[in-house]
Amino acid sequence: MGRLVDLNQIAVSLGGLPVLRDIELALDPGETLGVSGPNGAGKTTLLRVVATLLAPATGSGTVLGAELGTAAVYPVRRRIGLLAHRPALIPELTLAENLRHAANLSGIDSRKTETALRVVGLDEVSSRTAAASSFGMLRRTEVARLLITSPTILLLDEPFTGLDMEAQELIGALVSRTTSEGGSVVMVSHELGHLAAHASRLLTISQGRLEPAL
Amino acid sequence: MSFWSQVVEITRVDLKVERRLGDTMRIVLPFAVVALLVFPLTLGVDLSAISRLGPAVFWAIGILFGMQVALRQAAHDDPERRDLYALLGVDPAARFVGRTLSGGVLMLGFLGVLLVAMIALYSPELPDSWFGPLLLTSILVAVGLTELGTLAGEVTADLHNRTALASLIIAPLALPLVIGASSTLEAMTRDAGILPWILILVATDLALAVAGVGLARPLEEASR
Amino acid sequence: MTRVRVLLAIAAAGMVVGLWFALTAPTDTLQGEFTRIINIHAPSMWLAFLAFGLTALGSAAWLIRRQTRWDRLAEGSAELGVMFTAIGLFSGMVWGQAVWGRAWDWGDPRLSTTAVMFFVYVGYLALRAATPDPTVRARRSAILGVIAVVQVPLVYFSVNMFRTLHQTQSIRPDGITMPREMAIAIFVNVIAFTIVYIALLVARIDVAKAEEKAAAELALAGDAVKPPRLSEVKDV
């Protein structure tokens, strides 16, 4: 598998304001990249560019071989997984139903959802609605979703925030599985300790630019 | 997963969520029936006027309040869910068709109950063989209004005043539906042909379907 | 559940007796057999008034004492009030269509005020359904429950305040203005409907208690969330 992410002189603006500039980023299979930076530095924006959800204003780049800002990104999106800052679950559905919904939309056998729920420790509470579940339970459900979709590029936005030790270990296991299968991970956090424990390379965003972390 | 499988899945889940929330039947529908009650009170006790105006009032209230049914999905949409659907490989056109189907089913139920209420309250003089054409126009209005609601929801995604703004966008665009639906019944009352009005409804629905499917991807990208 | 079954059995027996009285009571010369609808219509509206009155009482008691049982009373009574109002409206419309030739008379304030009362309490139930937190739900609906009850006297006295097609009260403090047998049939049906109301209210309160118990058990999810099986992550 060749280089998974290759960004050259990428600049992104949001709401007319420049957020990222001169971004150079290369990601190879098996790598875990940690990106730190203060609130509002552009960490989430960077993740969404790598997720192909945001097109760059200037510069060029490829993700999984697809040119950013073109229709080529649509088929590769299925191979990208994102754990966003806020859970993306339907509140009125149960945890199990949310998982089955994602599996059905992706064309994945929905029987895998039972295994995934058991592995993340939610099998006895999977009939609770997302609205009636704690943040930690929602996070675990999303980890279960990433386990069954098995993305090649895994993007994690402040993944350890608000989680107990067991759930944090689960995130770590997800990262290890992804890289051991030839994928790569980009993890953003303002907590350097978490990043140092999991990342093979550390960068920081400063003044909209990516720099090596000290 | 195939396009139509995604459509079925989105329709199924959308109807399940509505069954649990009950916004349409528990809130919007009673509100619409209250509007049916309020209107004649402003006319005074002119029973023949009330009877004559019944069908027109039904369509006006059905479409104005039906907009809330059409926009209910937009009220629950958020950027995280849209991103998730994109990364799960959901075709935006499938999302449009799925939402139109689920919304259409709810809208049809809404219009059906509202029609029964109008007949009971207004005692309108309906033409012979009214049921078939009325059912057809209700289906076409339900589909068209839901298509409009889904499109307007996408266009106003993440804006803080989206519900009011989306309603403002839909209202004038729904005029062909209002005219086609109310004129169908009026034409039957005069023993005139209803085909031109049905064709207006069909053409409107088709145009919205083409726009919805064709613009689904650009709208999804523009919402970010 | 035994007391509910006993109450329902008594209610069923009462309805049979009420039906017998309704079918054997004399009819009005002009309205004919349609007069008998009054044995459904009048008791339904009486029970609606009673039910909404008890909703207001339960609401006020909750606001003062903050005890869940008053909220259960308010909720159950409101649901039954909406049901009886719907029965009253529907039977009235059937009667109106048969006697006046119109199911709905816009000149009759009692009809309009009753319909408005119905929808206010539909809104009350929608508010409850939309509020997930039990304490917030009880507080908000208690406030609405106390305010909404002003409609009950408005509906009841509307026939006196406005000249209307609707019959004025036939049973008044100064006497009864209908045939004795007809009045007895109505009284018997009011009693039968009241027993139905009590039986259903008790059943509904029991259901509410069971729902609260289930929710309390559900709230303690902590122990049910198990440690993740980290060694099996690669096998999913």
Model description:
The complex is a heterotrimer of chains A (214), B (224) and C (236). Chain A is 33% helix and 27% strand. Chain A is of the alpha/beta class. Chain A has one domain (5-212): Rossmann fold (3-Layer(aba) Sandwich), CATH 3.40.50. In chain A, the strands form two sheets. Chain A has a six-stranded mixed beta sheet, sandwiched between helices. Chain A has a four-stranded antiparallel beta sheet with strand order 2-1-4-5, covered by helices on one side. Chain A is globular, with a radius of gyration of 17 Å. Chain A starts with a strand and ends with a strand. The mean pLDDT of chain A is 92. Chain B is mainly α and 224 residues long. The model of chain B has no long low-confidence stretch (mean pLDDT 90). Chain B is built from ten helices and no strands. Chain B has one domain (3-222). With 236 residues, chain C is mainly α. Chain C has a single domain (2-26, 35-166, 177-209), classed as Four Helix Bundle (Hemerythrin (Met), subunit A). Chain C is built from seven helices and two strands. Chain C has a two-stranded antiparallel sheet. In chain C, helix 2 (38-65) packs across helix 5, helix 2 (38-65) packs across helix 7 (180-219) and helix 4 packs antiparallel against helix 5. The mean pLDDT of chain C is 87. The A-B interface holds A 48, 51, 53-55, 74-75, 77-78, 80-82, 84, 86-88, 90, 92-93, 97, 101-102, 104-107, 149 and B 1, 5-6, 9-10, 13, 16-17, 20-21, 78, 80-81, 83-90, 217, 221, 224.
Brief rundown of the structure:
The complex is a heterotrimer of chains A (214), B (224) and C (236). With 224 residues, chain B is mostly helical.
Q: How many H/I helical runs of chain A?
A: 7
Strand elements of chain B, count: 0
Tell me about the biggest sheet of chain B? none
Tally of structural domains of chain A: 1
Helix content of chain B: over 70%
Number of helices, where a helix is a run of at least 4 consecutive DSSP H or I residues of chain B = 10
Estimated structural class of chain A? alpha/beta
What order do the SSEs of chain A take from the amino end to the carboxyl end, as H and E? Answer: EEEHEEHEHHHEHEHEE
Beta-strand percent range of chain B: under 5%
- The gross shape of chain A turns out to be globular
Quote the distance from N terminus to C terminus of chain A: 30 Å
CATH second-level architecture of chain A: 3-Layer(aba) Sandwich
> So, the CATH homologous superfamily of chain A?
P-loop containing nucleotide triphosphate hydrolases
- The best one-word shape of chain B is globular
Structural class of the helices, strands and pairings of chain B? Answer: mainly alpha
